[in-house]
Amino acid sequence: MELPEHIFIFTTIIFAAIAAIISFKEEKTRRTLTEREKKYKQQLYQISILKEIQDRIGYELNIEKVVDVITGSLKNLFPYSTTSSMIIKDDKLIFKTIVEEPVGKNFIDQIKGKMLASLSALVSEKIPTIVDENLSGVALEESDFSSLASFFNIPLIINSNVVGLINISSIKQGLYKEDEMTILYQITNQASNALSRLLDVLTTEKGKLMAMIQSMADGVLMISKNNELLIINDTAKKMLDIQKDNPSIVDIINRVPKDHNFTDKIDRVMTTNNLLENKEM
């Protein structure tokens, strides 16, 4: 017995509606599982990065090393053409870029310009004009004139002071959403907090060390590998008849008799990394 046409049509509509509902639920479940997998992947990445940072920095306040760990592993999180960092170090800027996709010099210059503008806006003092550049990864294409289409900057802050930026850039439009920015911000923020705590510890320890050195009856001074005077106690200043509160290495050298070749002895210690005794001065 054939069903009347209107009943057949109604039945077909009902089955189509049920199929659509089932399909919708399956799609919703699939999206939920995909989002959950993405979230777990991001959490795992975040934990692994923070562990590597902890393993690498130890008791050393090396901001460059921390940034290198972060930028060197970002390709496990989301796509990009380049990832860059710009760090304020002494009297210069350290600009590093890892090139993941072929781009030209124009693209790199645009990134540098954006980062300089952001850093200038975030830092109250004038930033250094000298820039040390380092490019790694895929070689630049001279004939490539692709423009910067998508990017975002994440500041690196140590004890409320902006010390640098991490940049993610791409030649593709609208590539980065809030999720990508949030996960990188969380990683950078936790790394910044770890460095801030380490800086507090080192500052406290340095204070103890300085107090101990100042109390010594022997004259003590410490010189960096860049020939900068880091520490000098009052006993050493009195021995050398130095009146300045903050003398330089030049002041020290000028007070030591020329025939003792003090500069040569400093260079020899720095070069050989060996103890050098000079029993009479």
What is the radius of gyration? 30 Å
Structural class: alpha+beta
Strand order of the largest sheet: 3-2-1-5-4
Unreliable stretches covering 5 or more consecutive residues: none
Task: Walk me through the topology.
Layout: H1 5-57, H2 63-71, E1 82-89, E2 92-99, H3 105-122, E3 131-137, E4 150-158, E5 161-170, H4 178-214, E6 221-223, E7 229-232, H5 234-239, H6 249-255, H7 262-272
Parallel strand pairs: 2-3
Antiparallel strand pairs: 1-2, 1-5, 4-5, 6-7
Helix pairs in contact: 1-2, 1-4, 2-4
Give a description of the structure.
This protein is an alpha+beta fold and 281 residues long. The protein has seven helices and seven strands, in the order ααββαβββαββααα. The strands form two sheets. Strands 3-2-1-5-4 form a five-stranded mixed beta sheet, with helices on both faces. Strand 4 and strand 5 (161-170) form a beta hairpin. It is elongated and about 115 Å long. The N and C termini lie far apart (122 Å). The model has no long low-confidence stretch (mean pLDDT 80).
